[in-house]
Each structure stands twice: as structure tokens, then as C-alpha cells.
Amino acid sequence: MANFPPDFLWGAATASYQVEGAYQQDGKGPSIWDIYSHLPGTTYQGTNGDIAADHYNRYEEDVRLMAELGLRSYRFSIAWARIFPNGMGEVNPEGIAFYSRLIDELLKYQIIPFATLYHWDLPQALQDIGGWENRAVADAFATYAKICFEQFGDRVTYWLTFNEVINFIMLGYRDGLHPPGVKDERRVVEVTHIVNIAHAKAIAEYRQLTREGKILAGKIGMAHVLLPGFPISDQPEDIQAYENYEVMDHHWFYDPVLRGDYPQTMWNYYQSKWGAPTVLEGDLALLKQAKSDFIGVNYYQSTFLAHNPLNGVGLTTINTTGEKGSQKESGIPGLFKRVINPNIDYTDWDWAIYPEGLHEGIKRIQERYGTIPIVITENGIGAKDAIAANGEILDYPRIEYLKQHILACKRAIADSIPVFGYFAWSYIDLLSWLNGYQKQYGFVYIDREKDLERRKKQSYFWYQRVIQTNGAKL
Length: 474
Ligand code: BGP
Fold this sequence. Notes:
- The chain has a single domain (9-469), classed as Alpha-Beta Barrel (TIM Barrel).
- The strands form 4 sheets. An 8-stranded parallel beta barrel has the order 1-2-3-4-5-7-11-14, surrounded by 6 helices. Strands 6-8-10-9 form a 4-stranded mixed beta sheet. A two-stranded antiparallel sheet has the order 12-13.
- The two termini are 14 Å apart.
- The protein has 474 residues and is an alpha/beta fold.
- The protein is built from 15 helices and 16 strands.
- The site of 6-O-phosphono-beta-D-galactopyranose (BGP) has 14 residues, from loops.
């Protein structure tokens, strides 16, 4: 099987709200997550990111541990509300200074910074004017992106505009589980288009600055969730359900980013149902011009689809407790439903462990969009890690999970798919949005009883060797 290229980006990822804490420090404005997570009943046992891993204050120690781990790249996100406390207007110099220090610290150890501009923590001030339903927010995003490029683009050469548009829109506007807690499918469609416009505008700013030689010429793209579907049986109605799912949950979101247009069937469906999305003159040209240098994919699981009659199941709540088997079937009547596949393993949060899905999913991307460089921007398993009597963290299930998924990347590379990096989620234990701190993902454990002391898990030493051998020893 092909080896990993010598400059393969072995990395790990985090996101600002989930790791930084310091939610009111040094002039930061409130984000929608600061407000939402404080509302009763929104998250698992009322957990929030007020303190998180306190990475904001402990980043030097964290980067030192990254260096010891051997990370070649670190993916982090910038909190918009640190840079612009009100989302627009006055820049907060202390916010700029923090990310500047973090980037310098990474570079000190030759760790390549991989920056995400938006990992869901919209400034609350922008939500107050309509959030992603207001086109002014797309313009504010372009301005924020430009400031980040100008301030950090002399040192950062890998950029992601958005993290998982699919998830923050579906969870925020269809399921009502993330802020702003809306359940309205028409608004899902409108918001998607405005976010795509924001992405395209940010790319245009980036191209302009690099053309003018004002910043280093790097690479820019978006990170999408990849949750490939598979029909649960070879019955024609299950295959149809799978096709419905793929176009609605994947093509609708990937096409505008990688092809600059919307899939015709979904377009017709949404237009006839709600006359959405509202497209203004110039929008589609803007999407066409916004060429990505690569696509980031966040892969955790696959999903299995079955026929769902018109009077079938609708959307249900999700398993946020970690009680295996508590996830109910959920779907869109008349189109598809997501069902459990009895032949494969699931995590305690009922996520299907299916490494083949990663290989197959990125193959599908190449088939539909042609050869485009791919980076796995997230991959990991949420688990309640076992702790031995001597305090050692025995996260063997994580090692096994990561190993199988890295092998899937290796197979994809052997198929000539240009996968240029792999970022495990997550570098360190952090807040899982709705699931609290008991759903752990990191290589580094945080002892929440002991002043957030950092401890290396078994997986830390395992990943260290994977990187040292460039993936030869898994
Ligand atoms: C992705 C997000 C991450 C992370 C991960 C795990 O969708 O980009 O921020 O949280 O999923 O999800 P969860 O924390 O819900 O288990």
C-alpha cells in the first residue's frame, strides 16, 4: 500500500469555544454559545465553555505538549468575538494579540498553524441583527476574515473559512438544538445560501490580498462534515432513501462550495416548496468565482438509510447522555430515515464506527467534483476514557478507532486521492457542544478535579510514534 507523503500534515484540532475558556477576558464580546449554553436545558447538565480547558491562559503549556507529541500542524479556530467584540466596528487589539502569540508559539516549534475563521461562535451582537439570515452578517464576516488575513497572513498559510456548515445550520435552524434554536426548514435553505455568500466573499478578500502581495500566498478552503449514507438493504426503496439523503444532506452543501452551483433537483424542490433560497443578482457568479484550494472533511461516522413513508418518523432528539442505544430513529417523512445497522459497532453516543465510510466518502467527493486536494480536518471518537488506579488514562478504543481511520486514508492515497493531512479531533479534552465534558476526544487528558492539570493519555504516546514513523507504525 502507498506510504504517506513525506510532508503529510499530521495534526490535531480544537475550536475556540470548546477549548479556550476565558469567555469574558481581555475585551472579548459574548458569542451565541456564551448566551445559549447559559439558558436552562440547552446542554448536557448545563455544561458550558466558560472555562473549558482554559487554553487561552495555558496555551504555552499546550503548545509545548504539542511539540513533544510531534504535531506537524495544529488546527485551531479564531473566536470572532475576540477580534470584533460586537461582530463589526472596533477591533479588539488584545484579541489580535492572543492569536498572534499562539501562532508565534506554534512556529517556534515548527508546528504549522491551520486556522479556521468560523467554528460556530458567532458574536451575539450579530445574532441580535438576525444572524446568518441577514446578509449584512456575510459582509461582516468578509471584513473579519480580511482583518485576520492581514494580521496573521504573514505567518498562517492554511485557512478554513467555515467549519461544518451542514451541522451548524441543521442543528441551529432545523433541529433547534444549537443556537439560535430554530426549527424551520425554509430558514435552513435561506441561511445556507447566505453562509455560502460569506464564504465566497472571504475567499475573494483572500485572493485580493495575496494578488497584491500583502500576505503570504497560502491555501484556503472550507471544512465540511462528511457523513456518507449507505442504504440499509438492496431494496429499491432503501436505495432511493439513500439517494434522497445524499442529495439533501451532502450535495446541497458541497456543490456550491466545490462547483459553484446548487444541485438542480434540490433547487427545484426548495423553490417549489418555499421559493427559497432568495438569490440576488451576482450571487451565483460570486459562488462560481470562489475556488477552494482544497476541501477539509470532518469524518466521525457513516449513516444507514431506509425507506420512510409519508406518515413515517420525523426528527427526534439526539443521544447527548452517552447511554448507548438511547438514540431513536429519525428522518424526513417521504424521503429517508436513519436507522441502526445491527452488523457494526456504535459508540456510547450511538455514532456508527465505520472506517470504510471515510474511504468511500472521499472517493465520492473525487467522483463528483474531480481531483481536489483533501485534508481530514477532524476524525475521532468520543468516549468516557478509563482511568487506571495509578492515574494512567487507558484510551485503547481511541487508538483502535484512529488507527482504522488512518488506514482508510492510506487506502485512499493508494487510490491516488490527494489526501495531504490528517487532524485528529481533538488535541486535548474539551467541551463537546451538547454533551459536556464526559464525552472525551483528546490525546491530552484534563483533570477537572485538579486545577485542569494536563496528563498524556496512552493515545498520546501512540500518536507520537505514528508521526515519528510517518504512519508506517500504526
Ligand atoms: C464536529 C465539530 C467539533 C466537535 C466534533 C465532535 O461536528 O466540528 O467541534 O465537537 O464534531 O462532536 P461532539 O462534540 O458533538 O461529539
